[in-house]
Amino acid sequence: VSAYAPPVQKLIAELGKLPGIGGRTAQRLAFHLLRASEEDAVALADAIREVKERIGLCEVCFNLADGPRCRICEDERRDFSLVCVVEEPGDVIPIERTHEYRGRYHVLGGALSPIDGIDPDDLKIAELFARIEGGEVREVVLATNPTTTGEATALHIADGLRERTPQVAVTRLASGLPVGADLEYADELTLGRAFTGRRAV
Ligand SMILES: [Zn+2]
């Protein structure tokens, strides 16, 4: 890498910080950008700058939002009494695509993973408890990923809710989702079925 001019080295280093991008891929992407038109390369840089400037987290559910609240929390037609708990903002999209769910969301910002140093305080769990204690919700659907960390997170939340708000039903998506996979990659039909077949935990 040191054979390249410093600006090229810097680009490769920045691209290499992206998830799933190793050194070789970072290099290939950097060369692609060097070959791309000025217009395309600048459009990419502007898009990155714009999301960082304009997109924040919804004050209610912590989904991505371009104002204080996300579009789902602003939508009066959504069912206030249902809250679906997911790990990442990217998990909201596949659930929306199933058209099986008309409630709102709560985005945790990850999953519990003591090995990686991710504790309840690192996620929006206290915010979830406060939100549910606040009233009007009758069911919380735990839609964390069917992975070890996702299951541990669901259990932790279910315990916490049972203690604080025993009147609120807590459900988990039905099995049938590929174990160990991310919700993000589940197909619509399977995810839709997992929603309709959700069960109490
Ligand atoms: Zn929201």
Compact summary:
The chain is α/β, with parallel strands linked by helices and 201 residues long.
Largest sheet: 5 strands, mixed
Q: Hetero groups bound? A: zinc ion
Give, in order, the helices and strands.
HHHEEHEHEHEHEHE
Helix content: 40-55%
Structural class, from helix and strand content? alpha/beta
Q: Beta-strand level of the residues, as a percent range?
A: 5-15%
Helix count? Answer: 8
State the shape.
elongated
Chain-averaged pLDDT: 92
Q: Strand order within the widest sheet?
A: 4-3-5-6-7
Q: Can you tell me the residue ranges where pLDDT is under 50 for at least 5 consecutive residues?
A: none
For the terminal residues, how far apart are their CA atoms? 52 Å
Number of strands: 7
Q: Round the Cα radius of gyration to an integer and report it.
A: 20 Å
